[in-house]
Write a structure and sequence with these properties.
mainly alpha
Length: 415
């Protein structure tokens, strides 16, 4: 087989495996949202306490980000991501052992620790296997997995919950996750363990092998990436953690109907993630600068999403509110490829995982706060209106950060 064709097949095999990893964790994340009302009733857990439980994975996920990026840069995608996948699968399989808010929180925290390795590992792999005019498309395909995972996971979890009880949800998806871990270790095409600093596969590079995080934090763009992702993931985690409960508690939907309706924003989000990623690379190939192209897509998408979520907050008709929230998710997810390509575009070659971990750390501070703040607002007001307005405001802050704080998308050169 021609060498070029072989390498083309291998790099899309990498995308498919990364897609599978993100789909798996997304199924696991949404599963708890589906069973949350049942857990609240069975164990007498308040909305604010359930918000903290649902954020449990994000505490360890966020706290580990600044460690996992350098770890990926040091040891490589294959081994670090493989270990992470094993950890999150075991944590999910063991979650039914929990019978109270505290133990549920701890099991989700262990899941978050394994999950924390994924996004830096993904960025490092995409940087090595794909050039600047292909990255947004590759990232769009990778991140579309989260929408597929959430949409399918919501329906599967709702079915298993209604038929067999909440424990069965985690037995099934935990077992499937461990099977994926085996597939990852066997099929990932580059099984080298060590520094992964080359941009294209099997090329040597003369750049430094280690870049400290403190060096990256001297650049305003690193802070802009972190603040921008904070706005993005705050809004996104309001959807992931509370949309099923919103439909059940505020819109009086049944559990099974909720599983179907809650999947709609994520199905639209899947299409938008792929389309937005393709658009980001297409306009660059047509001659626009990466800086203008990526910022225009991210800024426009997040600002339109802000208007849609705030409008949905004050809409009395259920069908219209669901439509607006579905469109909101579509515009938000259309920015995914371009937003995540920014870190790869500007990171030193030996620090793609590290800069991505900074971006993801800031993002998951927002993601961590989203379910907690939403839970407290719901408990205080008895409605989701204020929570949706807050999500819109934080999302607007993220758009401003990506457009105005992030500087030109040129590679940082650190001696």
């Amino acid at each position: 087989m021609n060498q070029k064709i072989r390498e083309g097949l291998e790099k899309w095999k990498v995308v498919s495996l990364l897609w599978g990893a993100l789909a798996t964790v997304s199924v696991i994340r949404v599963a708890l949202s589906i069973v949350a009302p049942a857990l609240m009733e069975e164990y007498d857990i308040s909305p604010s306490a359930m918000g903290i439980v649902m954020s449990g994975w994000n505490w360890t996920y966020t706290g580990s980000q600044l460690l996992m990026g350098p770890l990926v840069d040091r040891f490589g995608t294959w081994i670090v991501q493989g270990i992470g996948s094993g950890v999150w699968g075991l944590a999910t399989l063991a979650l039914p052992l929990a019978t109270a808010a505290v133990s549920l929180f701890l099991m989700r925290a262990l899941f978050g620790l394994g999950h924390s390795m994924l996004i830096p590992a993904q960025a490092s792999a995409i940087s090595r296997w794909f050039g600047p005019r292909e990255r947004s498309t590759a990232l769009g395909f990778c991140f579309s997995a989260s929408q597929v995972g959430i949409a399918i996971g919501a329906m599967i979890a709702a079915f298993l919950l209604a038929r067999y009880g909440w424990q069965s949800v985690f037995y099934w998806i935990g077992g499937a996750s461990l099977l994926f871990t085996l597939k990852w270790f066997l099929l990932y095409p580059d099984k080298r363990i060590g520094v992964q600093s080359d941009v294209e596969p099997r090329q040597e590079s003369s750049v430094p092998n280690r870049v400290p995080l403190s060096s990256l934090l001297r650049y305003r763009s690193a802070w802009g990436l972190a603040f921008g992702q904070m706005g993005y993931l705050y809004a996104y985690h309001v959807f992931v953690n509370w949309l099923p409960a919103y439909l059940i508690l505020e819109r009086d939907m049944s559990v099974v109907r909720t599983g179907i309706v809650a999947s709609l924003p994520f199905l639209v989000g899947m299409i938008a993630t792929i389309g937005g990623g393709w658009l980001g690379d297409y306009v660059i190939r047509r001659g626009l600068s990466p800086t203008f192209a990526r910022k225009a897509i991210v800024g426009t998408g997040m600002m339109i999403a802000t208007v849609l979520v705030v409008t949905a907050a004050y809409t009395p008709q259920t069908w219209l509110a669901v439509t607006l929230l579905t469109l909101c998710m579509g515009f938000l997810r259309a920015t995914t490829g371009s937003a995540n390509a920014m870190a790869i575009d500007i990171a030193p070659r030996a620090a793609v995982g590290s800069l991505t971990s900074i971006q993801n750390f800031g993002g998951n501070v927002g993601g961590l706060m989203a379910p907690i703040v939403t839970g407290f607002i719901l408990e205080a007001t008895g409605t989701f209106t204020g929570a949706l307005v807050v999500a819109g405001a934080v999302m607007l802050f993220g758009a401003i950060s990506y457009v105005f704080i992030v500087g030109p998308l040129e590679r940082i050169e650190i001696q």
